[in-house]
């Protein structure tokens, strides 16, 4: 926590009790004296409010009021909010209402603008008084276009520094106003004034603020104006690294490449806040209800709490007085205490869900209560209840909607009419019936590192979907992806692990298949709507009977009776079947979008579809398995034009775990890692078992972003998510880490996570070498032999 300047050094004695002793507060934060912090800040809120009401509103001259308001402006509201948010992130409750500080700050700015006489403060008088806010700053924050254009030509306004060392240009970039930024830059250039000025608290220039918030056009404008893109802030980060960290890869591409060897400090030396851990596991006889306010999708803009008298979104000017509202969330039958959220909500809660363990025989219900603060305490003004499992019968037994967002009405206590709504996203976790709580092989980052050192020199090479993803653009031999033949080929070419996708059929069998729909059937039917027999039939129609391809040489495995399998042979009936399949494909949405299907005879060396059981029993034990649990995602259903309904999440995961458990021989040394793009799947895997490491796969802001999941949108949220749910590591789209290689150190040293990458660039030796130099632990690649040879030279 950085407090910048000593904010209390100018306080006059009779007003000192109305200000924040930042040195004292900083000491309490350092020592972890949570109770003292709460007591101090709660008292400060009351003191500041009293001071404003009775000092600022008292009778007196305008100049006298202006002086008092200027002193009032010494309070660092942003610092107080950061303290509160830090405490909340660390799981402490009882923090004061941060919205009060925002409202007080807004009132003070408005009063300053009203009382300002045009003398003194702006014209250089009262030079011995502490700084408050400049009118140009206020105009930008209020987005008053007329005032901004009127005040911008004044050089004193342009270079006025706030108590944090911010200029008007800093403020304009924070608000994302390209027009303001353009006007300010034009005037700065006209007057020959510097624009690339770092602030005091963080060492951020306007370029940093624009990059952090992803303001593409503003970043481009500032770079064209000559902003130093290689400048480091007080923590050693560059603006480009912040852009990548926040998931703004398009913005990061505006910057020139940086020689990371010339940089010091930075991401891996940066402080990392304590992580609020999830429950260790879901116990037998209970279920866990988890809910997060709002939506988890980037393309969904919702107001979490939207009531007629208050909202979760703070909007200046919408609050009369500083009435405090709070939302309390609880679960019927839970042993956990209710969670309280003050309104408006000023911090990000996407990785801080409300967690309520309940008995397995209790109906899952969330209760929302809205209260208003009065001098006598909080008084209930409205409430509502959400029945989380009420609509399960609409989808059929064992089915659920892919939309996990729900809206509950809030009824006014007095009128019993709908006063508004609460929108939230929820997940219900049920225990896995068999014991997989003991590690098998390795489960922690430390065990991963030890295992890697014993078997190979990092990074570990994983064959993507076996010997590579099937693409028409590839100009090399391609065996059908996600097949036993492809896995054996990958191992022969140098992969230590093979990655493959596991889905679950309607009759609850785990099968190996990547795409959302089995368009080989001639329709866009999802895999989870097919039986196992229907799934395999699409493969049998075009496949010769037998086992993996003869191009691999003699099979390395035997059947259940110990006999070697028969060799493959081709026949006219299968060629006719392949033609039939291709004719059917032309009418499917999937084929129209991509123009091909993987593992189809004629385009690739087709092989039989495989079940998870066959993979576990037929692959040699020395081949490690990266099993991606590929749960259907909402955008896939939308693209296919089918109903967003799938197999219930717990059932889906349990089928995969049970198949692995049943086929794992006692004393087996096979290394298995579990992974998923779906955050809820990772959460379930973490809570249901501890036998195998769990990896979260994330786009990390890769463009175009088809999956609009918030928790997959950046390095920052992915790391927080993985730490929050005790995951072993993260598999990033490699573009992010190639743009900012030093973030690998942040993931590994600060996040304490194993760092893996995937993506087309992982097939290029030069890009692989960059990742090895950055310290990437695992590389998932299609061109297995090429990457294996590259790694062999480096090692």
Defining traits:
single chain, Serine Threonine Protein Phosphatase 5, Tetratricopeptide repeat, 4 domains, eight-stranded parallel beta barrel, globular, hydrolase, Glycerophosphoryl diester phosphodiesterase family-domain-containing protein, Ankyrin_rpt
Please, could you describe this protein's structure?
This protein is α/β, with parallel strands linked by helices. The chain has four domains: about 130 residues, no CATH class; about 130 residues, Alpha Horseshoe (Serine Threonine Protein Phosphatase 5, Tetratricopeptide repeat); about 140 residues, C2 domain (Immunoglobulin-like); about 350 residues, Phosphatidylinositol (PI) phosphodiesterase (TIM Barrel, Alpha-Beta Barrel). Helix content is about 35%, strand content about 15%. Strands 1, 2, 3, 4, 5, 6, 7, 9 and 10 form a nine-stranded antiparallel sheet that branches. Helix 11 runs parallel beside helix 13. The radius of gyration is 30 Å and the shape is globular. This is Glycerophosphoryl diester phosphodiesterase family-domain-containing protein. It comes from Apiosordaria backusii. InterPro entries: Ankyrin_rpt, Ankyrin_rpt-contain_sf, C2_GPCPD1, GDPD, GP_PDE_dom, PLC-like_Pdiesterase_TIM-brl, SPX_dom.
What layout of secondary structure does this protein have?
Layout: H1 22-31, H2 34-56, H3 62-72, H4 77-89, H5 98-115, H6 135-141, H7 145-151, H8 155-158, H9 168-174, H10 178-191, H11 206-212, H12 216-224, H13 239-245, H14 249-252, E1 286-293, E2 305-307, E3 325-331, E4 339-343, E5 354-359, E6 365-374, E7 377-387, E8 399-401, E9 405-412, E10 418-429, H15 445-455, E11 460-464, H16 484-493, E12 497-504, E13 510-512, H17 532-540, H18 572-585, H19 589-594, E14 610-611, H20 612-618, E15 624-629, H21 634-640, E16 645-647, H22 649-663, E17 672-676, H23 679-688, E18 694-698, H24 715-724, E19 729-733, H25 734-739, H26 743-750, E20 754-758, H27 765-774, E21 778-781, H28 784-794
Parallel strand pairs: 11-12, 11-21, 12-15, 15-17, 17-18, 18-19, 19-20, 20-21
Antiparallel strand pairs: 1-5, 1-10, 2-10, 3-4, 3-6, 6-7, 7-9, 8-16, 9-10, 12-13, 13-14
């Amino acid at each position: 926590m950085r407090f910048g300047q000593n904010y209390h050094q100018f306080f006059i004695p009779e007003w000192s009790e109305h200000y924040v002793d930042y040195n004292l507060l900083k000491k309490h934060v350092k020592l972890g004296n949570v109770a003292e912090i709460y007591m101090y800040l709660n008292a400060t809120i009351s003191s500041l409010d009293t001071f404003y009401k009775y000092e600022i509103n008292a009778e007196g001259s305008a100049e006298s009021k202006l002086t008092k308001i200027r002193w009032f402006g010494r309070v660092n509201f942003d610092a107080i909010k950061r303290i509160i948010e830090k405490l909340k992130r660390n799981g402490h409750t009882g923090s004061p209402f941060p919205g009060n500080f925002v409202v007080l700050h807004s009132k003070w700015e408005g009063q300053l603008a009203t009382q300002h006489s045009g003398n003194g403060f702006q014209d250089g008088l009262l030079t011995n008084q502490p700084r408050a806010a400049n009118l140009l700053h206020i105009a930008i924050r209020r987005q008053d276009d007329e005032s901004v254009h009127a005040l911008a030509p004044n050089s004193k306004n342009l270079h006025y520094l706030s108590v944090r060392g911010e200029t008007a240009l800093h403020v304009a970039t924070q608000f994302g106003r390209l027009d303001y930024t353009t006007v300010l830059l034009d005037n700065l250039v006209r007057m020959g004034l510097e624009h690339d000025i770092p602030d005091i608290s963080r060492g951020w220039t306007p370029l940093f603020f624009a990059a952090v918030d992803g303001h593409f056009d503003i970043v481009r404008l500032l770079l064209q104006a000559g902003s130093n893109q290689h400048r480091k802030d007080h923590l050693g980060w560059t603006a480009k690294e912040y852009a990548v960290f926040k998931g703004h890869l398009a913005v990061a591409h505006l910057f020139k490449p940086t020689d990371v060897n010339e940089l010091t400090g930075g991401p891996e030396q940066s402080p990392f806040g304590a992580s609020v851990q999830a429950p260790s596991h879901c116990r037998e006889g209970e279920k866990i209800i988890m809910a997060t306010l709002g939506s988890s999708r980037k393309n969904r803009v919702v107001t979490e709490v939207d009531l007629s008298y208050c909202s979760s979104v703070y909007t200046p000017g919408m609050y009369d007085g500083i009435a405090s509202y709070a939302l309390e969330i609880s679960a019927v039958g839970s042993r956990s205490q209710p969670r309280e959220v003050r309104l408006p909500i000023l911090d990000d809660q996407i990785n801080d869900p409300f967690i309520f363990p309940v008995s397995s025989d209790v109906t899952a219900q969330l209760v929302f209560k809205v209260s208003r603060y009065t001098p006598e305490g909080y008084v209930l003004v409205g409430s509502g209840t959400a029945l989380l499992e009420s609509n399960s019968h609409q989808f059929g037994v064992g089915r659920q909607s892919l939309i996990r967002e729900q809206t509950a009405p809030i009824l006014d206590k007095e009128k019993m009419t709908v006063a508004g709504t609460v929108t939230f996203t929820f997940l219900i976790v049920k225990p896995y019936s068999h014991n997989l709580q003991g590690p098998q092989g390795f489960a922690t980052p430390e065990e991963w590192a030890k295992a890697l050192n014993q078997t190979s020199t990092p990074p570990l090479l994983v064959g993507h979907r076996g010997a590579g993803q099937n693409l028409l653009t590839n100009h090399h031999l391609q065996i059908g992806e996600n097949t036993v033949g492809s896995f054996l080929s990958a191992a022969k070419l140098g992969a230590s692990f093979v990655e493959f996708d596991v889905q679950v059929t309607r009759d609850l069998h785990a099968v190996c298949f990547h795409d959302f729909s089995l368009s080989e059937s001639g329709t866009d039917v999802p895999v989870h709507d097919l039986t196992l027999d229907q799934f395999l039939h699409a493969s049998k129609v075009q496949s010769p009977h037998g086992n993996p391809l003869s191009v691999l040489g003699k099979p390395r495995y035997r059947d259940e009776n110990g006999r070697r399998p028969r060799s493959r042979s081709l026949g006219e009936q299968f060629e006719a079947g392949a033609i039939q399949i291709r004719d059917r494909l032309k009418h499917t949405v999937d084929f129209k979008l991509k123009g091909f299907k993987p593992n189809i005879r004629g385009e690739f060396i087709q092989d039989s579809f495989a079940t998870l059981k066959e993979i576990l029993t037929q692959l040699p034990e020395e081949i490690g398995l990266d099993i991606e649990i590929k749960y259907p995602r909402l955008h896939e259903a939308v693209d296919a034009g089918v109903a967003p309904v799938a197999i219930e999440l717990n059932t889906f995961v349990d089928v995969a775990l049970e198949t692995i458990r049943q086929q794992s021989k006692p004393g087996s040394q096979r290394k298995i890692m579990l992974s998923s793009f779906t955050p809820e799947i990772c959460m379930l895997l973490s809570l249901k078992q501890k036998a195998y490491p769990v990896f979260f796969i994330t786009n990390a802001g890769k463009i175009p972003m088809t999956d609009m999941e918030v928790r997959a949108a950046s390095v920052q949220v992915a790391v927080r998510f993985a730490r929050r749910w005790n995951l072993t590591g993260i598999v990033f789209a490699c573009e992010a880490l190639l743009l900012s290689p030093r973030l690998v150190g942040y993931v590994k040293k600060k996040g304490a996570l194993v760092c893996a990458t995937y993506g087309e660039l992982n097939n290029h030796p030069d890009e692989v070498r960059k990742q090895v130099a950055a310290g990437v632990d695992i590389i998932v690649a299609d061109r297995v032999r090429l990457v294996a040879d590259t790694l062999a030279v480096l090692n």
